[in-house]
Amino acid sequence: MHKHHSALGVAAALRPVQSVTLVRPHAAERAARFFSEKFPGRSLYAVKANPSPDLLLTLWEGGITHYDVASIAEVRLVARTLPEATLCFMHPVKAEEAIAEAYFTHGVRTFSLDSHEELDKIVRATKGATDLTLCVRLRVSSDHSKLSLASKFGVDLADAASLLMATRQVADALGICFHVGSQAMSPQAYSDAMARVRAAIVSASVTVDVIDVGGGFPSAYPGMTPPPLEQYFRTIHEAFESLPVSYSAELWCEPGRALSAEYASLLVRVERRRGDELYINDGAYGALFDAAHIGWRFPVALLREPESHAKDVGFSFYGPTCDDMDRMAGPFELPADTRVGDFIEIGMLGAYGCAMRTAFNGFTNGDTVIVDDEPMASLYTETVRPAEVAGRVIKL
Ligand SMILES: *Cc1c(COP(=O)(O)O)cnc(C)c1O
Known about the structure:
- The protein folds into 2 domains: 2-23 and 262-371, Lyase, Ornithine Decarboxylase, Chain A, domain 1, CATH 2.40.37; 25-260, TIM Barrel (Alpha-Beta Barrel), CATH 3.20.20.10.
- The protein is 29% helix and 22% strand.
- The chain is built from 11 helices and 19 strands.
- It has helices at residues 7-14, 25-38, 53-61, 72-81, 96-106, 116-125, 157-170, 188-204, 229-241, 257-260, 289-293, and strands spanning 3-4, 20-23, 42-46, 66-69, 86-89, 110-113, 133-137, 145-147, 173-177, 182-184, 210-212, 250-253, 264-274, 277-280, 300-303, 312-318, 327-335, 343-346, 368-371.
- The strands form 3 sheets. Strands 1, 2, 13, 14, 15, 16, 17, 18 and 19 form a 9-stranded mixed beta sheet that branches. It has an 8-stranded parallel β-barrel with strand order 3-4-5-6-7-9-11-12, surrounded by 4 helices. The protein has a two-stranded antiparallel ribbon with strand order 8-10.
- Helix 5 links the parallel strand 5 and strand 6.
- Helix 4 (72-81) runs parallel beside helix 5 (96-106) and helix 5 crosses helix 6 (116-125).
- The longest helix has 17 residues, at 188-204.
- The protein is elongated.
- Pathway: Amine and polyamine biosynthesis; putrescine biosynthesis via L-ornithine pathway; putrescine from L-ornithine: step 1/1.
- Pfam families: Orn_Arg_deC_N, Orn_DAP_Arg_deC.
């Protein structure tokens, strides 16, 4: 991969026709170190947020040794990329063949489940293994989160006791896991969920060895500035300390977004301007799925030299495909004189951005290049963009 000093440098030097993915390994490594040093337990990276092998290697360098995988393809990918890593298969509904391959071929010992059927499947597929860590996924509220994960998975509290007792019978180590929803804007999401965990443990009277608070740790986006992550960690630690679990119980978390959002951004070119609508060369079927389909606002910056001094106005974007759905409403704040041929950086796309690309309509992404300037926002450093980077308008 080519290395450049800055996003602006890439635009100026390459003038790329296709959208370019800009990656910042230093930002991902910083996030990994933050979690591995400050989270009061073990941090598993949720691979679905961004499965790029380069990112996996970077997170490993930053101290992340455990990986939350959700499909057999993710199991194989991480096993191949990081042979020393510990894999945890945390999708509560798995193919029996996937469980068997994970257990017998890739050494996976940790699985999640939220039903008696899945427990039976795990027992059958592992031929009654006695060395399993089984995590029962509890349904919790997504009230504090921007993206709900409350409907699809998780056993209800009322049904948790019987599943916990049955799982305890076959598990070497018993865990309880949950997911508060993605981009949880308040630590209270976790204290509320932990109250439900406590109720489940009390109702089942089982010994619990692992509490896994899942993902949901936020990143920074326009209009969404979360409290510092340390507050989340403190809240979780306090709740964990007061749970009726065994003395040697472990605390885990599964951040996806928080470890990967700052890793990547996108360099796009304006192909047409129609009023306050910009037609750009990436979109809903590319790295901007969330911007199109759930109205997520990402930070944007015009990369032009000399810098524009025009006042900012709110733009919407059209992507390159031939349908109306390829539209990102924004508003994306850019200088009023933004025009055809300009390059724009769209930030914070390392999580659920680059991972979701398709090649629909023949529009694929171009190169991936490494840059060593700062991401457009960061939860892990005070300094955002160095002042010497010209042409930048940082809008949060
Ligand atoms: C998606 C997912 C995660 C990661 O969630 P983030 O909100 O990106 O941190 C963690 N655990 C499970 C089980 C998931 O499905």
